[in-house]
Structure formats: C-alpha cells, structure tokens
Amino acid sequence: MQAINRRQGLALAAGLALQAGVPTASAQAAGARYMYDYLFLDLSPASGSPPRAALAARFNAVDRPAIAAAGGEVVAAFAPQLGWNSTEMALLLRWRDAGPAREAAMQALMKAVPVAAGARHTLRPTVRPAGSDVPLAGGIYVHRWFEVEADSLAEFLTLSQEGWRDFEPRFEAKVFGLFEATRTKADRAAGVTRLLLMTRYRDHGVWEQSRDPTTAGMTAFARRQRLTRHSRGASTLLTAL
User: Fold this and answer.
1) Which of 39, 36, 40, 56 has its CA nearest to residue 239?
2) Does 188 reside within a domain?
C-alpha cells in the first residue's frame, strides 16, 4: 500500500469531514461573512497636537462616517509598545461590502493628514475571529506576521488550533484572529502565503512565560514554525480613535 504523507493525510481528512458535514478550517474561511483591512500607519507630527490625536479628529469627522456608509466598521486601533516606532499605529476594519465605496474610503484615509506613510493589507479570517467578534479590552496585543509555504496553509491552521487548545487554558492569553492576507504578485512569485496572528496577553510577562518550549502548545507551534519561511512580531495596546 502506498504511504500517505502528512499533507496528503490532512487533505484526506478534510475531504472526509466535508462528506460528514463537519466544517473544516478552509470551509469555515470560505463561508466567512466579512473581509478586513489592516492599515499600518506612520504619522507625522501635527502642529498643536500629538499625531494620533490629530488623526483621531480627522478620522471621527470624515473617515468614520465614510466607512460606515460603505458598510464598514472600525474593529480596533492599536498603539505601539515593543517593535514599532512611537509614531506608528494600526487600524483593523471589517467590511460586509468589497465595493468601490470601500476602496474610496481606504484611499482617502491613507492620504489623510497626518499620515506620512502607510501599508494596507486586505485580509480574510481563517479559523478566527468568528462573526462579529471584537478584541477584549486590556492587556497587550501581539501582532505576528508569518510567511508560510503556500501549499502548507491547511496544515498551518491545523497546527495553530492544536496548539491553542493547550496554550489558552495554560496562560492568560487569547487568540483574537488568524487572518490570511490577499496574495500579491510577489507572494505568488515566492510561493508564499502571508498570515497575521493577533493574540492578547495579560502583559509582557505572560508573553515571555508562554514561550516555554516544554508545553504541548509550543510543541505544536514548533512544528508550525517548520512550515514558516519568515515571521516577525510586535506588541501593542488597544487605543481609542
């Protein structure tokens, strides 16, 4: 009998689950109701007020109403802790409609004063978040980007869920979302898929404790790391905008 490797086994298991009516990670993602935009912004100093306050004044007067009219909402705003410059921040927005009004609202925001530079990543949820979930208040949020082999996505998601089953009960930590970024031309040429993981920890001490390599969760994450070409992370705080 021909041996079946791990990736073939995962694909077979997914097919059997679909036949049995059990939603797989890919099926859940395909049925997701929402799309997301993740905006990473670098703000220039504004005359008379801190840059985030200047952006908030503009955003609440102009951008928030335009986003709402286009079928979107602000899920969260994040301020830097470790790994970002003091002038950097991020916004996570959720959309029901991927039409031209969404594009116009995003283009206007990216060009707003005091935005000096920015990057927009369009995302879809994978196994989290579900529905209209929002991040819990307090603690820190670690944003971690992964570049993984494109054909390893299903295995990456399976290993993530396997690790979370030990990781979340063991530590004061909760995964808010694991998002797949829309593949760019460069991603396709490199054969990679980019993912953004957002995890809430009580504080930086818990973040360090959770890296204990002897736990069952970290064992799964180590296997996940072998599918990863590159990763980077930064810690943030939820902030008002």
Assistant:
1) 56
2) yes
Predicted TM-score (pTM) of the model is 0.85
141 Cβ contact partners less than 8 Å away, ≥ 6 residues apart = 76, 78, 135, 176, 198, 199, 200, 201, 235, 236, 237, 238
167-212 pLDDT per residue, tens? 999 999 999 999 999 999 999 999 999 999 999 999 999 999 999 9
Number of compact structural domains in the chain? 1
State which residues form the domain around 201.
32-130+138-239
For residue 233, the domain's CATH number is 3.30.70.100
Whether residue 13 lies inside any domain: the answer is no
Buried b (16+ CB within 10 A) or exposed e, 95-133: beeeeebbeebbeebeebebbeebeebbbebbbbbeeee
Mean pLDDT of the chain: 88
DSSP label of 152: G
Residue environment code for 211-237, b if the CB has 16+ CB neighbours within 10 A, otherwise e: eeeebebbebbebbeebbeeeeebbbe
d(CA 227, CA 96): 32
pLDDT tens-digit series, residues 148-177: 999 999 999 999 999 999 999 999 999 999
**Domain-located, residue 5:** no
